[in-house]
Design brief:
The chain is mostly helical and 43 residues long. Helix content is 58%, strand content 0%.
């Protein structure tokens, strides 16, 4: 039981830096839809 919890915590700590930068890397999210819709309202 302790090893399962340690694995879950370790996996969560691994996901933090991976998901921290969604606009970089080979598989990335484009900021264009956000810039066209959400930011266009403030221009």
């Amino acid at each position: 039981m302790v090893s399962a919890e340690a694995t879950a915590v370790g996996f969560s700590l691994l996901l933090v830096p991976v998901l921290d930068r969604p606009f970089t890397g080979d598989l990335c999210v484009s900021p264009e839809p956000f810039e066209e819709s959400a930011l266009a309202q403030f221009r």
